[in-house]
Amino acid sequence: MNDITTREDVEYLVKEFYGQVIKDDLIGFFFTDIAKIDLIKHLPKMYNFWESILLGNPVYEGNPMRVHFPLNEVTALEEKHFNRWLQVWEKTVHDNFEGDIAETAITRALNIGRIMNHKMANARIR
């Protein structure tokens, strides 16, 4: 297996991840029923997001945190949901890639999940 080194690698990883996560018993409904994401529109944003993070190409524009607050108001995004998101991400990375950038993808996802979990929990308190 190779490391994540190109935009094509990022696209492959993200497609594989979404193919799994939208079918997940615990969190799939967030994507299909709550956010009702249109993968044709959503995936290019996620390609840009992860390309920016993993390859250092500043192609992502947006605020991923802001998008999740309205979803959290409909159905609470809880720690168990972020943990499952990370489990699926980590498995997808390990099933398809190995190397420093692949490990960075997991570390970055862990950090993103922790921050989002904290912010979503605080938003529910208010």
Secondary structure topology:
Elements: H1 7-21, H2 28-34, H3 39-55, H4 64-74, H5 79-96, H6 100-125
Structure description:
Helix 5 (79-96) runs antiparallel to helix 6 (100-125). The protein has helices at 7-21, 28-34, 39-55, 64-74, 79-96, 100-125. It is mainly alpha-helical.
Order of helices and strands: HHHHHH
**Termini distance?**
46 Å
- Could you state the CATH homologous superfamily? Globins
Compute the number of structural domains.
Answer: 1
Characterize the largest beta sheet: strand count, sense, and whether it forms a barrel.
Answer: none
Total number of helical segments? 6
Please tell me the CATH architecture by its name.
Orthogonal Bundle
What characteristic shape results from the CA principal axes?
globular
Mean pLDDT rating = 93
Q: Can you count the beta strands?
A: 0
Any low-confidence stretches, pLDDT <50, length ≥5?
none
Estimate the strand proportion: under 5%
Helix content: over 70%
CATH top level is Mainly Alpha
Radius of gyration computed on alpha carbons:
14 Å
- CATH topology group: Globin-like
* Oligomer designation: single chain
**Structural class computed from helices and strand pairing:** mainly alpha
Protein name: Hemoglobin
Binding site for heme: 68, 118
Keywords: Heme, Iron, Metal-binding, Transport
Organism: Epilithonimonas mollis
